[in-house]
Amino acid sequence: MDILEIIEAKRDKKVLNREQIHYFIENYVNGVVKDYQASALLMAIYLNGMNDEEIAILTDEMQHSGDTLDLSDIPGIKVDKHSTGGVGDKVSLVLGPMIASLGAKLAKMSGRGLGHTGGTLDKLESIPGCRINLTEEEFKKQVREIGISIIGQNTELDPADKKLYALRDVTGTVASIPLIASSVMSKKLASGSDAILLDVKYGSGAFMKTLKDAKKLAQTMVNIGKSLNKDVKAEVTDMDQPLGYAVGNNLEVKEVIETLHGRGPKDLTELCLNSGSILLEQAKIFNNRKEAKEALKENIKNGKAFEKFVEFIKWQGGDISYLYNPEKFEMAKNIIPIVSNKSGIVTKIDALTIGECSMRLGGGRETLDDVIDMSAGIVLAKKIGDTVKQGDVIATLYTNKDSFDEIKERVEHAFNISKNGRIRKKEEILIE
Ligand code: URA
């Protein structure tokens, strides 16, 4: 067998078998298949797709391309959650402590932010001292003893995805359902948890722009779970505006703290309660989601969810005085309010623009080598459906950069404010 034969088969819309997919993954990871050949195959997959069986095989081959984590020596059902990425998505930091405070075990490996989307690891590192590079033993001990640990992905885990993802990023082949599904699921399956909840975002700030595509991606990933006998569920949720108000690392951690105290934004709180209740049912700690949701609300009210967050950060070496006194977080030098020049109702906030602008203010990275300014970002003052009067602040920029006029203009234009705009409730569903 050679790689040319495999590229030609996919170019000609043929179905690839296990042997061919195995050959590609094994030989791409060990360097026999070159980037230009892998690029051609990725583009053929992008254009011609894959059926469910091919996607399941690709996922399985990627999952086994390196180490896999064995969590079986941690008692109980280990759960994991993953969001396909968005703007202001700080769910894991709220949800993790919430469910761990009720006995769930969240063993999560996370990624860094790239482009307009943020990453959980960067948010954690914005807390001084917080480590995201625990050893496997430390990671497991922490999950066993306190029910939660979130760390960076082990470099030996899923090397196929690391190489393929970097190549997809520069060859226009990211937005492909078979490639996203296999990328996400191979990493999650290699991380060793028993049950996985996926949050597939759709809208302007997400990879998937439409509900139809998001449902298809969610169903594809649930099907991979079924074919491998794993409990995988997928929520499909809105990313047409940023989640919550804060975008940018330490700004988001402050919002996490507020949310764990029960004072968080409505959309973020609702999503964490919904996802939390599904995970607690998957962990078999509750038999039904309604009871689980009530228990989660109770643990926010009685402070147990926040206490678990403090314990989690302390175990990972973070300075917890910042959690008790969030005003200690470094503040950006320039704080620039953006004022509306008209009155009306907010009908749209372009999440992609807000994410890109936050990145340009220093809050994100364009390439993986960029250094992030943890204090930079954007805090919205208004969300979709809010009434705005001319002269009201609609958002505030935080930056240590001295030139921001263009960003100011872009953020202002990201808001659609209209006199009689109609607001359609975005559909959110669970695929199981
Ligand atoms: N997230 C991933 O991990 N992989 C993709 O391909 C897209 C989003």
What can you see in these coordinates?
The chain is an alpha/beta fold and 432 residues long. The protein has 3 domains: 3-49, Transferase, Pyrimidine Nucleoside Phosphorylase, Chain C (Transferase, Pyrimidine Nucleoside Phosphorylase, Chain A, domain 3); 78-324, Pyrimidine Nucleoside Phosphorylase, Chain A, domain 2, CATH 3.40.1030; 331-418, Aldehyde Oxidoreductase, domain 3 (Alpha-Beta Complex), CATH 3.90.1170. It has helices spanning 3-11, 18-29, 35-48, 52-63, 91-100, 120-125, 136-146, 159-169, 177-190, 211-227, 249-260, 266-282, 289-301, 304-315, 321-324, 351-363, 405-414; strands spanning 78-83, 105-110, 148-152, 195-202, 231-238, 246-247, 334-339, 344-349, 377-380, 387-388, 393-399, 415-418, 429-431. The protein has a 6-stranded mixed sheet, with helices on both faces. Helix 10 links the parallel strand 4 (195-202) and strand 5. Helix 1 (3-11) packs parallel to helix 3 (35-48). The longest helix is centred in the middle third of the chain and has 17 residues, at 211-227. It is globular. Bound molecules: uracil (URA).
